[in-house]
Amino acid sequence: MRESRVCICATALMAVCFVSGSSALGAAAVPDLSGTYWATTYSPKIQVMGGGDPPLNAAGKTAYDTNRAGLRSGSLPDPARKVCLPDGVPRVLETPYPFEVFQLPPGQVTFVHELNHQIRPIQLDGQLPKYEDVVNFLNYGGHQVGHYEGDTLVIQSNGFNDQTFLDSTGLPHSDRLETTERVRKVGTQLEDVVTIHDPAYYTKDWQARFVYARRDDVRLMDYACGDKHRDLSSVKGVADVRAARAAGRFP
Amino acid sequence: MSKTAFRLGATLAGLCGAAALLLPALAADSKSDSAVPPFMLPATAGWGANINPQVDPEMWLPDDYLHGEASVKRAISLGAPPNRVVPYLNARMFNEYMPPVSGIGPVMDGPEHPFYNNAVQRAIGKNSSYRVADLNSEAGKNLMPWAVDALMKQNALALQGRNGETRQARCWETGVPDIHEAPQGLYFIQTPKEVVMYQGGRVRHVYMNVPHTKNPAPSWYGESIGHYEGDTLVVDTIGLNTVTFVDGYRTPHTTQEHVVERFKIVNGGKALDVSFTVDDAGTFYKPWSGRRPRYRENARMAEDTCAANNDDKFNLGFDPVPTATNPDF
């Protein structure tokens, strides 16, 4: 019994030494970003930070026109909405449904989304792979790694397949897309500023900002494609999109 | 204890006490952490199912299942060669429940129409087959007439080679306890207030140390509340919708379904023992139980892409993957 107590004490001391040692070395504490969050506004078209339209190049414009025409006529499927496949970045950020952020399990930050029962596992112990190393392993959500810079979680992603759009209007991306998100608390809100880097379709890098209200009063619900889902009347913009769709207009 | 060790112990105890005084919050955290069994593994690991039992020495299954007299007898009655019983029983754990140690178990197959999943096919060289429920078994006789009728219809379809895939294979939400049949790895996120379970696109939220709400609206995974009993996580679930089945044989249930699951880490941390009891006074005469062990594997949590290119290409009467005809926003 005494030996086990000694052991526990030694472990506690090691923890104390580790914590104080880290502080002495100047390593900042990890910001607490955990919680349940829910957007208060929704726009099917991604809002470029600073205003204006996304800086599409000629190839990007052609791809966008093709996507819009295909989505409007129904000839181009939107798998993220039709069969609830993952949205990819940054479209997952424009979700009008709540999500949870866990700075767990150890070595990972996990976003658990209600929409499409998506998760985003962000590795804290890895480095963004080279394009050449992931080109044969492309997926919907990309390969995501993260690290902390002061009060901010920086998430870098690449390795996206070509089955997703950047927003619900069909904004295109290539499989060279790389995104960098800076996620932090601003007051009680969570802010995610994403930088889009995709020279195949855009003349320069550009950014979009998403803000979510802290909603620990909300429990995430089950989400299956085709179900009647939760009430989104608190999210400004959703009603307009629904009205437009009901009137046969493409948002 | 030697003098030196005693001195060291006393010094440590003193320092430890000081540390506890200085950092009461840290001391409290350490205490509560040590009391919670660690179902949440590091990001590089999860609780896998038995994908390849023949080559995986880490696989863990209870002795009563692998070597028990009744279990071995049943395996042989279902076509397992006497010298391949253990590989056969291993392989069945690819996508099935394990019967309980005693009492009424889950609906399963019978000697007339044995079920051979793809792993069993490899283990004993039989052609794979669809599930056909044995309605003459103890579990079959535990079903109320409406549930027997539903299973007879499904059995007839399966025998025609139609609609033989499970709901999880068709990307549907499985409900509880059917989530335990699915072969994908199970991952836990544990906080004091909530335990999240993630398994191949299926997400469950278990709220800890709170009562059930009154009349929760029926949903795919229902309302789950949990608590720890020593080294065991106990999860109590009600409010399940009736769109799901309780097993891969498509045994139906009513909204009265009530499931209690018990999760416990065994085999020196290498395996997860999952057992559950299903009670539904609208479907079963008596509660029944099942098990589904999993084992620790090195595999990260990954996105779910079940619905990608998963149409019924050969027109085998499968459920369509869940589809939204019109986006809702």
Descriptive overview:
The complex is a heterodimer of chains A (251) and B (329). Chain A folds into two domains: 1-29; 35-246, Lipocalin. A nine-stranded antiparallel β-sheet of chain A has the order 4-3-2-1-9-8-7-6-5, with no helix packed on it. Chain A has 251 residues and is of the alpha+beta class. Chain A is globular, with a radius of gyration of 21 Å. Chain A has helices at 2-24, 58-73, 79-82, 131-134, 238-246; strands at residues 35-39, 99-102, 108-113, 119-123, 143-149, 152-158, 178-186, 189-197, 206-214. Chain B is an alpha+beta fold and 329 residues long. Chain B has one domain. In chain B, β8 and β9 form a beta hairpin. In chain B, α1 (3-22) crosses α2 and α5 packs antiparallel against α6. Chain B is globular. The N and C termini of chain B lie far apart (70 Å). At the A-B interface, α1, α3, β3, β4 and α5 of A face α1, α2, β2 and β4 of B.
Which descriptors apply to this entry?
heterodimer, A: 251 residues, alpha+beta, Lipocalin, 2 domains, 9-stranded antiparallel β-sheet, 5 helices, 9 strands, globular, B: 329 residues, 10-stranded mixed β-sheet, 8 helices, 10 strands, disordered N terminus
Query: What would CATH call the class of the largest domain in chain A?
Result: Mainly Beta
Helical stretch tally of chain A: 5
Strand order of the largest sheet of chain A: 4-3-2-1-9-8-7-6-5
Report the span from N to C terminus of chain B. Answer: 70 Å
Low-pLDDT runs of chain B: 1-33
Radius of gyration from the alpha-carbon trace of chain B, in angstroms = 23 Å
Produce the secondary structure layout.
The complex is a heterodimer of chains A (251) and B (329).
Chain A: H1 2-24, E1 35-39, H2 58-73, H3 79-82, E2 99-102, E3 108-113, E4 119-123, H4 131-134, E5 143-149, E6 152-158, E7 178-186, E8 189-197, E9 206-214, H5 238-246
Antiparallel strand pairs in A: 1-2, 1-9, 2-3, 3-4, 5-6, 6-7, 7-8, 8-9
Chain B: H1 3-22, H2 24-35, E1 45-48, H3 63-67, H4 69-77, H5 85-92, H6 118-124, H7 138-141, H8 145-159, E2 187-190, E3 194-199, E4 202-208, E5 223-229, E6 232-238, E7 258-266, E8 271-279, E9 288-291, E10 294-298
Helix pairs in contact in B: 1-2, 5-6
